[in-house]
Specification:
The protein has six helices and no strands. The protein is mostly helical. It has one domain.
Length: 206
């Protein structure tokens, strides 16, 4: 009868360890791919920078370079999240908020690039006007999202700081709090010294 639960516990433990090893292998492979993607994107940004140096008056290359660099920052933040997950075995919400913040800023740059292209070409058609209005609406929505991400990151870090500040107070042993304070010795020092120095005086015998 006792062999059944023992075999079940052993099977659960082995399956848990197997899935844990598979998860670690997948995380490592994902980290390698993210690293290679970040290096390739960084290389393409460097090539765009070299091309942009030839055309000093154009701003198109600048927007593209910043867009690629934002994408690299997103990949690095995802890689940091993967590394933290492999180390601690738990996911934290702060990296995802940072990734969302970077993605929103990146979309703002892309929409700004598109709207600047429309205004530079002087498209007065109905399609150009609709594109400009939709860009304004998207920029407003992205602005609200950026504000939400910033406030969420601030509140999350503030909560971590308050938790870290309250940990030393919780580590105090209740025994030290229950001990009564040391009572000062009765009597002053002068009275104790007078008691020590008091010498009995013999009466004169007549």
């Amino acid at each position: 009868m006792a062999s059944g639960p023992l075999e079940k516990d052993r099977a659960i433990r082995l399956s848990t360890e197997m899935f844990l090893h598979i998860e670690i292998v997948v995380y490592v492979a994902l980290g390698v791919l993210l690293s290679l993607s970040a290096l390739l994107t960084l290389g393409s940004a460097a090539l765009l920078l070299l091309e942009g140096m030839r055309d000093w008056g154009g701003t198109h290359a600048i927007f593209l370079i910043v867009d690629r660099l934002m994408f690299v920052l997103m990949l690095i933040e995802i890689l940091h999240t993967v590394r933290g997950s492999v180390r601690s075995g738990a996911l934290t919400p702060e990296p995802f908020l940072i990734i969302g913040l970077i993605a929103s800023i990146r979309n703002v740059l892309v929409i700004t690039l598109k709207s600047s292209g429309v205004t530079a070409e002087g498209l007065a058609s109905t399609g150009g006007e609709m594109l400009f209005r939709s860009s304004i609406v998207e920029l407003a929505v992205l602005g609200v999202l950026i504000l939400i991400f910033v406030v969420s990151i601030y509140l999350l870090r503030r909560g971590h700081a308050l938790t870290a500040a309250n940990e030393p107070d919780q580590d105090r042993s209740p025994r030290a709090e229950d001990e009564p304070p040391n009572r000062p010795p009765t009597g002053t020092g002068l009275a104790r010294n007078s008691q020590k120095l008091s010498i009995p005086v013999k009466e004169d015998v007549k």
